[in-house]
Amino acid sequence: MKTIYRALLCALITTVSYGQEKKEAKKDTTKQKTTKLNSVIVTGNLKTDPVLTVVANKYEEKIVQPKNVADLFNNINGFSVIKRGNYAIDPSFRGAQYEQLNIQYDGGTKAMHACPNRMDPITTHIIPEEISKIEIIKGPYTVRYGATFGGIVNLVTQKPDFEDYGLHGKVSGGYESNGNSLVNLVQLQYIKDKYDIVANAGYRDFGNYEDGDGTEIPSSFRSTDYGLKIGYNFSKDQRLQAHWRQSFGRDVLHAALPMDTEYDNSSIISLDYSLDHISKTLKSLTAKAYYSYVDHLMTNDKRPSFMMMEAASAVDAVTAGGKIELNWKPFEKLNVFSGLDAMHIARDGDRTRLVKIMNGNLLSSPIEFNDKVWQDSYITDIGVFTELKYSINPKTILTAGMRYDNVSADIQDPEDDFAEMYNLEKRTEHNVSGTVSVKHRVSDNFTLEAAYGRGVSSANMIERFINHFTVGQDPYEYIGNPDLKAEVNNQFEIGFKGNTKLNNGFNYFKYETSLYYSFLENYIVGIVDENLTRKFNPSLDPTNPKVFRNLNDAYKTGVEVMGQLDFMDDYFLKSEFSYVYSRNQDLNESLPLTPPFTTRFLLGFEKTKFWANIQYNIVAKQNSISQSFGETKTDGYQTMDVRLGLKPIHNLTLGVAVINAFDKSYNNHLNFSFTNQSEFGRTPITEPGRNFSAFLQYAF
Fold this sequence. Notes:
Shape: globular
Low-confidence stretches: 1-35
Strand content: over 45%
Number of helices: 4
Number of strands: 36
Radius of gyration: 25 Å
């Protein structure tokens, strides 16, 4: 694999050349001021954008199928997804996942999961049709958006169209054949010069899908969502916006988790304020505040274990925070961003077990037990930051930033056995992170970027406070460790991008490459402790639990490459690949959840009213595994997707697709294994087989 990696990289570097970058169209200055809010990170501005960023496609412009959460990340180079079913899906970027990725909505709003098995990750609390684009900062290369370890993912929701005053909206619906799944959405917006209102409501009903062998995978779910966004413009430079949304998940089946979701209710409210052109030196002030609450109930009513033990777990999570930032320019070449942000996460909840069979004997009277899931714990992070952008010359920007985070954590209702293991006093950490980078536009056709970032991330609540619960890919019980040190990612990266104009029917060749190396300190993994024994079902294997520990010596390195040839005005051929190599030198194995080498080829065309593409996906086998994490080697696979879209009339958009057209039976390396399922052994869950889909949207 290393040989292939070097060969492909060398081939690309020797073939790329300079090109021409598209100029940004001029916008109405007044409207731009009116709509400016701290909801986006990447604005297309050389002088203000972070380095090494990616902006995924605007999804509402190329509607081709009803999307679930996974579809938002599957086709972004460098991303994979961690799948436990069709609902509990987490994105993974370059082998970083969970709280190692700083995932947020609209430049800072967060909603953390309540379930310790991550049945309800942050990506489940918003419907994909609401998201207009995804912005990615590829590493800890900015200090302005919270503590960051492996990168930032900003899910930008659709904003009002300020060019269309009055009442407008859209109605959409979709169908997927594999699972007989339905989705629909209604959105209305009313725009005036002083205020604007956007409201939406959606319903999703996904059935169990079949894999390529025709095996039905328990994965059905239903969800109902609605949202309301209200903005008021005090002036052309001052705006206040409120966003309220709720999501209600029902009857969610999780093929690779021990229980299912009866309900998952989330509520999120956020306030955004912006004030521009305050003075000659002080350019702007932005402020954000948000609050989210997740109420989650999971049971094993539909599982084989129900005959021996009834289990129900009601848990909840509160996430609250905010940010205030000032932007000033002491002189023309220096742009300064300074601010304060905070995030508070609190979780609580219990699991009730009604044991019917004990030691192989049927009990005449079942015995009830109560287990503390989160032990009434919280983590509070208060950060201060300053980031400077200095224009060395019109084509070169130097960025330097420093951040301090005061992280406090406490457990207020511990189980007796957990309290015996540790000194459970409130703990405070002092984390310092920083970055320095340079972005140089060699010409209008070629940009070079180089960066170093030190990202620091304190242990999450599972790693600190979980007590004898199976929360990993393997069947081990896990025990938290409140004394864990914060993980540190020292990441170095160089990237370049550009395009060149061609002739003879060929229009442009576009290219982009990033190479990175990360030296990891205090990396957190679960390690078997042979001095401890299993707490629940002690006769089952494995009998020894895992305890979260810090590693001393770990690293990862990798590359992402993209090349695209535009020809005959409307046609394109695109290829991209990503590769990650990681090493846990303490245990002499790969780091957990390292994705395999992935390649995509895309051939298509785009006209104003009609577009189509064929995508061929090649995923290599993964032999570099983490045996301590319970991983097994996985085979490679190849799939093909076909997508078509058209606008038969001005306001109507139709999209159709065939996903996994070859009906391939396969599983991704990051998929969790079937758990507590009567008809499946402990093998990785398989992906959907051939799936026909159609999506229709009418805008008015």
